[in-house]
Amino acid sequence: MPTAPETVRPIELAEIREARARISDTIVRTPLVRLELGPGYPDIRLKLENLQPINAYKLRGAANAVAMLPESERRRGVWTISAGNAGQGVAYAARKAGVPCTVVVIETAPASKTGRMKALGAKLIPVPYSVAWKALEERSFPGAEGTFVHPFDDHNFIAGHGTMGLEILEDAPDTAAIIASIGGGGLISGVGSAVKALKPEIRVWGAEPETAAPAALSFAMGSPQVFKEWKPSFVDGAGGQSVFPRMWQRMKPLVDGCIVVSLEETRRAMRLMAEKARVISEGAGALPLAAALTGKAGQGPIVAIVSGGNIDLEKFCELIGSRAG
After folding, report:
1. 98: closest CA among 114, 74, 79?
2. Do 190 and 293 fall into the same domain?
3. Pairwise CA distance, residues 269 & 75, whole Å
4. Rounded to two decimals, what is the model's pTM?
5. Angle value at C-alpha 253, between 226 and 133, nearest 5 degrees
6. Which of 135, 176, 183, 293 has its CA 20 to 30 A from that of 43?
7. C-alpha 253 chain-centroid distance
8. Is-contact 34 276, C-beta < 8 A?
9. What is the CATH number of the domain that holds 123?
10. Region class of 220: left (phi > 0), else alpha (psi between -120 and 50), else beta
């Protein structure tokens, strides 16, 4: 049976602060480091969410969402749909709560992500991307048992992500802009909720790859759109096939716009972080840096959220190993 979604409402600052206390013994307060690029470049700081226990920001939302389930629902176990990072987050939180977890996982997810989910005790159901996206819309999937935890369209999940916004403003109060990758929209909605409540003058930008940019299209058109030219790429953790109307309702008041970058710009950003900061980032984690380097978000200070580092090392080496392009 599909799970009826809750009514969309703003994420209150008090909810984000409560989430911070609730998940403090599960997540890491990740560092914010300046990327030293020299003159002529924007002032960019990296929020290193790749250093979370699952190497991705999704643990913030998952830990809060699972903790806030009524005991009767948590006892049934949980399931989610994921390209890998949300699945790891929910599996990690489920293991901590001592309940079973199932992940309907996109069949092209990197081995680094599927292996971690299995190690956390999750049962995996591999499906094509289009099937997973449809299940996200319908909030149901045959054979998935337990309480459904939506990987982005969930109030408590988003409130958990908002805790990152509190940390950014404490560590870099001079921030002029924040850039976050958009997949489903939960990360940017959470961070934007915290930031706009405390410092509404800060610009909040999304970042998407050119092969999957429904949010940029939606902001251009003024309504949620389907991206008909969607193509899979190494940026597997961002760029959906469409913007869900409910997520558009969440993002529209909080996000100032969306910057589209090429796959080559994303690859270069991955290499740059490895060279300058010794950071391993997956494709989605490099999108914000690539977007910052376009200059479209201004000269800074810009916080680029490195949302995750879950990429197979062989693929990472292949992507950063060439200076071509």
Report:
1. 74
2. yes
3. 43
4. 0.93
5. 30
6. 183
7. 19
8. no
9. 3.40.50.1100
10. alpha
